[in-house]
Amino acid sequence: MPGHSSAGQRWRGGWLTVRRWLPELAALPLLPLLAAQGRRVRRITPRLPEAAGPDRGLCGPERRHAGDGLRLLAVGESPVAGVGVDTHEQAITALLAAAISAQRQQPVRWQACGRNGVTVADAQSQLLPLVPAGQVDLLLVAFGVNDSTSFRSSGRWQADLALLLATLQERCRPRLTLLSGVPPMGHFPSLPQPLRWVLGLKAAALDRAAASLAAATPGVVHVPMRLDISATGLMASDNYHPSAAGCAVWATQLALAAEKNWPPVQGGGINRSV
User: Fold this and answer.
1) 274 in a domain, yes or no?
2) Whose C-alpha in 10, 105, 219, 223 is 20 to 30 A from the C-alpha of 265?
3) Where are the alpha helices (DSSP H) in the chain?
4) Other C-beta atoms lying within 10 Å of the C-beta of residue 43
5) pLDDT in tens for each of the 274 residues of the chain?
6) Could you give the number of structural domains in the chain?
7) What one-character-per-residue DSSP string does 219-271 give?
8) How far is Cα 136 from Cα 41, in angstroms, rounded to an integer?
9) 52: closest CA among 74, 82, 80, 31?
10) CATH classification at residue 154
11) Best CA proximity match to 104, nearest among 152, 160, 176, 165
């Protein structure tokens, strides 16, 4: 019946609005406690450095011609910068390159453009100057934790992310872009309750906005981060960043999504399902 359909649409629209603003609604009455917990977490959490060693390399056998093989570029926050591991060879970009090289039996040249503490808006000025012009086969974009802790609104986050993706696609012309899901902050062991719960809500809201943007952007695939943070050894010593083992699990998930969604060399569309 038309009346029931209209009422259902209004209810759904109202629920989507509430869900979008749920983190802010949950945080409002807890602001003094959350602020105190946030200050304490920043004070007691170890400050790990960015990874040492070259931020670019080659996985798999070298080919005779320089143009042979695949090119991978990663742009993102602290995990792309290698915080939580010793060298970039143990970080997400190199491990993703190794996984793709093994899957496709091709060499993969990789480069990581990351910086600790950046938001998506910061990336425009701090990371884009580091991004080389020229076509890549695979682009990985990984943000969300700093935008969650900054309580960036879902709308502002999505707009910032859309601008960054458009700029990167124009500069790098990737065959496929993987937009990594926002890490599940509701499971971060370094965060006390209720701060963990509220940041988990915020991270989930930003992740939904990222998935919606990817679904509407040609050539972009959203890959949820399904990392069992409770598993032993997957987090670094600060219990806030992924360890080398955690990056390896994450890289496997991303590589599977890339293989499933890889477009044909000559034309064709991209299957968005993950």
Assistant:
1) no
2) 223
3) 2-27, 31-44, 78-81, 92-104, 120-126, 145-149, 154-172, 195-215, 244-261
4) 7
5) 555 566 555 545 444 555 667 888 888 888 899 999 999 999 999 999 999 999 999 998 765 445 568 999 999 999 999 999 999 999 999 999 999 999 999 999 999 999 999 999 999 999 999 999 899 999 999 999 999 999 999 999 999 999 999 999 999 999 999 999 999 999 999 999 999 999 999 999 999 999 999 999 999 999 999 888 777 789 999 999 999 999 999 999 999 999 999 987 544 334 333 4
6) 1
7) TEEEE-----TTSTTSB-TTSSSB-HHHHHHHHHHHHHHHHHHPPPSSS----
8) 38
9) 82
10) 3.40.50.1110
11) 176
Residue given tokens 């990336």 in the structure block: 123
Residue 174: name the closest of 79, 269, 72, 41 by CA: 72
Q: What angle do CA 133, 138, 142 make, to 5 degrees?
A: 90
Note whether 125 and 158 are within 8 A (CB).
Answer: no
Range of the domain at 222: 2-261
- Give the torsion sign (CA, 184, 185, 186, 191): positive
Q: Is residue 267 part of a domain?
A: no
263 prior amide bond cis, ω within 30: no
Using alpha carbons, select from 246, 258, 267, 222 the residue that is nearest to residue 91: 246
